[in-house]
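idk why but the lab printer keeps eating my pages so im just putting this in chat instead. protein + zinc ion:
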Amino acid sequence: MKTYYLHILRFLTRLWKFSLLIAVCITLPSLATAQSLLRDTEIEQTLRAYTNPILRAANLNTSSVDMYLVNDKTLNAFVTRGQNIFIHTGLILEAENPNQLKGVIAHESGHIAAGHLVRRDRSNRSAYGSMLIAAGIGIAAILAGEGQAGASILAGSQQFGVLDALAHSRINEASADQAAAKYMEKTGQSGRGLLEFFEKFRYQEVLSNARRYPYFRGHPLSSDRIDKLREITGESIYKNVKDTDEELHQMVMMKAKLTGFLDAPQTVFSKYPKTDTSKPARYARAIAHYRAADLKNAITSIDSLIKDEPNNPYFHELKGQIYYESGKGELAIAPFQEAVRLMPSAPLLEIALAQVLIERGSPELNEKAIAHLKSALRKEGTNGFAWYQLSQAYDRKNEPALARYAIAEQAFAMGDYYRAKSFALRAQSGLVAYRAQKRRASDIIVIAEIQLAKQKNRRR
Ligand SMILES: [Zn+2]
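predcted complex ->
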């Protein structure tokens, strides 16, 4: 991940090869500030573990609320139409404990449950509607794994932070605070984290809007609001409930990982000095060593963690990534296989393994890769990077129709309907022996045509 802020194309083509912390740069032409979406199984699992009980308390369907991690140091979290929660890495790093982070997530869930965003969009359709749509496509494309197209769509729209430029009204803020307190109560947790968080950033209230963190531009703080929240959370019988040891551990590991990947190695080594032999410190250092191209120390650090926790899939995943990114693909297979064995439910782990297997080049490993990609796609069918890998594997197997079909799926997942239709049409004639794929190719053609017609209308 050394190529982090390099030229976008090189950055993207390289970065999508990563198994861990798959990031895509969404840069404005200036490159002054770079934002990216991060994908990482461990962090996603932690955020889900914190969030899902809150969503259930809000009577929201956990599987229809999507969460995105934005690589941005500023403190922000926001929701967009379609039940999407965006969390900046800056928010995670600033939160002092899981309870604070959960409080903010509960507040955002309150906005979703009350449909605040929908109303907001309707009244601002002209100004914000098109921007959100553009960003939506970009986001879908990026998650689908085709970084370049997604990034170019987004480069034409705005950065994520700006999406929330329009502030929630004070009434909506108060109602989201109350909802947050209610959800925390319902899950037997303390609402104090949100209060602490607001108090910590109370000074933001007196700053000019431009100097505030994006979060407090979108969610204006006020003394009234803080006092009201103190009153409600103080009444809860759960007000003194603390985060569990497991939750605290998940948080320090998540912070260590983000710091390891996102800060300069020297900064990581000063935040987590050698004298600190705790797990998070060794984790952050393992990542920093590998990013500093110090393979020996990277492997020593990650091996020490594996020795402590041989059943932790993420440690094996990191080891696989260290080897793979250091050009030692043959050594990456075993750790990735171990990660998948320990956590067969995680699509990103299987995709990472499959990529290494395909690159080894033998027909036997290629077959294994196909099986892993199919398994990953059963869990995350819109993962365009997995479809792309699958097309590569079919290509090596000399199955051109299946390869074209996989490209059609990839394009479809990223919202590139023109390309999806074109590849589905070209695949069709060769799919006689593959009924399910043939049917799916026909569906793609039909849906793509409808979407293309819609796009044409929108442009008029
Ligand atoms: Zn709010």
